[in-house]
Design a protein that fits this description.
alpha/beta; about 30% helix
């Protein structure tokens, strides 16, 4: 096996921690001697062993000697005390002779500290094996480290004419297929926060929770965020009344919160015109360590994120039905193109077409 094969296995292992380690990144590690894997590890859950520590523990549990082995790690080993001791020290203690790293850690608390510490002990270092693949796997973490803002994914659904809803004043019409709804919950599950405008809450009373067979008890539940400058959110709506997850209200001024339940948090971002600046919202969520944000609606919220070119990727679900309505609420592909997004993939789910867009 070659270096890329071992790193590819480390990437596969890292994937086991998806949904349960954030805000920590996905990391996998394999220990190799004489061209064969002798131990494996991954970061499994927040507060649990890091990938390098798990791999060393794996070797110990089976009586395998780690002295003189080579460690393949998808992310530069940490060199600071956090929820666990430094991984650099664990690798030194294990007696590895070389550490091959997928991608350097851009986190300001690390920034080369792991490489420097290992090198000082005479351990050989190589960086950049399957670098793109490792970076892409933890892209939300990487984006947050660089910009201190979440990576933004927009999700919208329309009928075959681009209409997003039926007539106002009537119950919302669910027109996406069962398969597409499954994809929505998969995207929610992989997001650290979900954001909507207050009009969507008033109209649809959404739960903004993750549902489906794939949900695990170890999943970290995404935060629910509502842009509500003038405190119009109904107190009896699901987001306020049911503590399924933390709810954050983005208000334009301080309001009486004495009747809020414990899971409700208010953040005041002053606004002169009644519209809270989207960049300020992203900065605020970044301060809360939100690394991936799902923008679920509605139309005005989508437009504001797109017009400011703050959307990194988008999923547009186009149903094959035609809504019977008199309103003028449409969402077109051209909105995505004008925001600098490019169509990367088109798939069929049930009776729907899903188009996936990314920023170049």
């Amino acid at each position: 096996m070659q270096d890329e094969d071992f790193m590819r296995r480390a990437i596969e292992l890292a994937e086991k921690g998806r949904f349960s380690v954030r805000p920590n990144p996905l990391v996998g590690c394999v220990l190799v001697r004489d061209g064969k894997i002798i131990a494996e590890g991954w970061h499994d859950h927040l507060g649990g062993l890091h990938a390098e520590q798990m791999a060393i523990a794996d070797a110990e549990s089976r009586g395998v000697e780690t002295q003189g082995s080579v460690a393949y790690v998808t992310l530069e080993p940490c060199n600071h005390f956090g929820r666990t001791p430094p991984c650099s020290e664990a690798l030194m203690w294990a007696g590895v002779k070389k550490v091959i790293i997928g991608v350097a850690d851009p986190n300001p608390t690390v920034r080369g500290g792991g490489v420097e510490a290992l090198s000082k002990e005479g351990i050989e270092i190589e960086i950049g094996v399957l670098e793109k693949e490792c970076h892409d796997q933890m892209s939300g973490f990487m984006h947050w480290c660089e910009h201190r803002r979440p990576q933004v994914l927009l999700k919208a659904a329309t009928d075959n004419n681009g209409r997003i809803d039926g007539d106002p004043g009537k119950p919302a019409v669910r027109f996406s297929s069962k398969e597409s709804l499954g994809l929505v919950h998969e995207i929610r599950r992989d997001s650290m926060a979900i954001i909507v405008g207050v009009n969507t809450v008033i109209r649809d009373n959404p739960r903004l929770t993750v549902r489906g067979e794939e949900k695990s008890t170890t999943d970290i539940t995404p935060k629910r965020v509502v842009i509500d400058p003038n405190n119009r959110i109904p107190m009896d709506c699901h987001l306020m009344a049911v503590p399924d997850a933390e709810t954050y209200l983005i208000n334009a001024k301080k309001y009486d919160s004495s009747n809020d339940r414990d899971h409700v948090n208010r953040i005041v971002l002053p606004s002169e015109n009644g519209e809270i600046d989207v960049e300020k919202i992203l900065d605020c969520l970044g301060d809360l360590e939100v690394q991936t944000l799902l923008v679920e609606g509605g139309l005005e919220t989508w437009k504001r994120f797109l017009e400011q070119k703050l959307v990194d990727s988008a999923h547009l679900c186009i149903s094959n039905i035609e809504l019977d309505a008199q309103n003028e609420d449409y969402f077109y592909k051209s909105y995505l193109e004008e925001a600098g997004l490019v169509l990367k993939e088109e798939i069929t789910l049930g009776n729907d077409i899903i188009t996936k867009w990314e920023r170049n």
